[in-house]
Amino acid sequence: MRKANVTILASILAIALVAAGVGAGTMAWFSAVPQDTGTITMNAATMEMEMTTQIYTFDDLIPGQEFGPIEVRIKNDGTMDIGYLGIDWIIDGIAYPDSLDPVILEFADKIHVTSINERVGGVWKDSMQDPQNYWNLVGDKELPLTLLELAQSYHSGEPDWAEGRKRDQFGGWVGTTTDAVTGSGYDVHDPPAIKVGETYIMHMSFKFSEDAGNDLQGKSMSFYIKFTGTQHLSTLP
Predict the structure, then answer these.
(1) Residue 158: its pLDDT value, please?
(2) 224: closest CA among 165, 150, 170?
(3) What's the whole-number mean pLDDT along residues 46-59?
(4) Per-residue H/E/C for the chain
(5) Is the pLDDT of residue 136 over 50?
(6) pLDDT value at 103 more than 80
(7) Strands 111-120, 199-208: parallel, antiparallel or unpaired by DSSP?
(8) What pLDDT does 180 receive?
């Protein structure tokens, strides 16, 4: 009897295991029909400047003669604000004017910058006088401010930026090799420099110094202004 009971129990266990295996093979799990979201598209913003200016030629300058103004307009045609506007004055196509011919250097130093006015954020500001005070922050920090001083100057840093920075031609600590930056350094306009759809305007006037020497008779010099729009100061040279 005991032997028969063991055989019967073993048979029942085998049948149970087979039943469990059969059931596992036929069991189904329910799922919902897959659904997609609408297409999600990402487009990067654009930074685009449209400059409006003209070629200016001032012939037969006489020592003591005032001339100008010149006008530059820059419209933000992009889809994002231009946070900072780097400004470089380039003499005779040379970014670092100390390498110019000495006569050209002298010529540029005899061109006095009598006014710089900028329209930023719809407001005109005198960049030569208060609140910008270019004249006492650039070069020898005295009037007159010359075109050469502007071209030689670098975007100024803060006093505690000395570590890891470099000095400009005037011994000051600087942040970049850009001459000026609207919104930082000695150009104190609050960023953004040019909002989307707005226009930045610069006017500059000049004077040919009374003490220009005879060695400048018949000489010529040219310059242009390079504007660089950027989102952040770290992307300026």
Answers:
(1) 53
(2) 150
(3) 93
(4) CHHHHHHHHHHHHHHHHHHHHHHHHHCCCCCCCCCCCCCCCCCCCCCCEEEECCCCCCCCCCCCCEEEEEEEEEEECCCCCECEEEEEEEECCECCHHHCCHHHHHHHHCEEEEEEEEEECCEEEECCCCCCCHHHCCCCCCCCEEHHHHHHCCCECCHHHCCCCEECCCCCEECCCCCEEECECCECCCCCCECCCCEEEEEEEEEECCCCCHHHCCCCCCEEEEEEEECCHHHCC
(5) yes
(6) yes
(7) antiparallel
(8) 81
Residue 183: CB partners within 8 Å, gap ≥ 6?
Answer: 83, 84, 85, 189, 190, 191, 192, 193
> Distance (Å, rounded) from C-alpha 157 to C-alpha 164?
11
Q: Where are the domains of the chain?
A: 49-235
Question: The whole model's pTM is what?
Answer: 0.79
What CA–CA distance (Å, rounded) separates 206 from 109? 12
Euclidean distance between CA atoms 137 and 185, whole angstroms = 10
Name the least confident of 70-79, 83-92, 154-163: 154-163
How is residue 148 annotated by DSSP? H
Task: State the Cα angle at 13 between 12 and 17, rounded to 5°.
Answer: 120
Q: How open is the CA angle 138-234-168, to the nearest 5 degrees?
A: 30
Mean pLDDT of the 15-34 span: 62
Element spanning 33, H or E: none
- Local structure of residue 184 (DSSP, 8 states): B
Pairwise pLDDT comparison (130 vs 151), residue with the higher score: 151
